[in-house]
Specification:
The chain is α/β, with parallel strands linked by helices and 284 residues long. The protein folds into two domains: 76 residues, Golgi alpha-mannosidase II (Immunoglobulin-like); 189 residues, 3-Layer(aba) Sandwich (Rossmann fold), CATH 3.40.50.150. The longest helix is centred in the middle third of the chain and has 17 residues. About 5% of the residues have low confidence.
Length: 284
Amino acid sequence: MFAADQYELIDFGLGRKLERFGPYVLDRPALAAADFAQRFPDLWKEAHARYERTSDNQGIWRSAAALPECWTIRHEPFALEIKPTPFGHVGVFPEQAENWDWIAEKIRAFAAAEPNRRPRVLNLFAYTGGSTLAAAAAGAEVVHVDAAANTVAWARRNAELSALAAAPIRWLVEDARKFVDRELRRGNKYDMVIADPPAYGHGPKGQTWQLLRDWSALEEAIASLVVPGRNAMLLTHHCDLLCGESLPGLPKGREEQHGFASAWIADRSGRRLHSGFVYRQCSW
């Protein structure tokens, strides 16, 4: 998890969430918070910036105080650049911190059992690289794949900020499905595969990704990419609403019976805000 001085979900309600990233407090939309009341209404006045949508996927940040273009927070032993974007994202999904801890724990356990080789990790839809850095810092060799060149550049900046620029990380601007298909043809295998697909996306050459359409085939391919018998998988999906439609092939409302757990973040009062789903398995 994040240290308290690096990230905090302060409050949520009325369709929004109030978060602190390092020294700066941000007020952002959160569909999962629509049916909740705000516990600490007075604290919302402390926000340095509030994100307001101007269209379905664009918006603006209204700053009540001086806000830098970007700043850094840490999830030891690595650093992450925070940068408010026109899409309302800031470069990190905080609920992933628990998964980063799990990745590091499993990589260290692998290294202890097989000290003569690095575990091979594939990170698909790798975004700004939190999972990549967690694996690399723990001693893994990582292939980082994301379709957006600017996002891969952001991930590389995070590696530099974390003193991991020289770590064995292969950075690829690539469509995840095409890369996976190519690796299967080559017979390449990985000890751990991580995937955090969005609901919709575009590849660097115009390829399209739709979670409902493409997830099942990709999940099957991932299962063929891992080393047989001794492997690990981490599959996550960020979504604001608790709905079965976000996980293709699973009966609505029964995700947890199929190995998926709900991902949550607790606010200052202990209330939990739904943020997606996670599936983790490790056989070593």
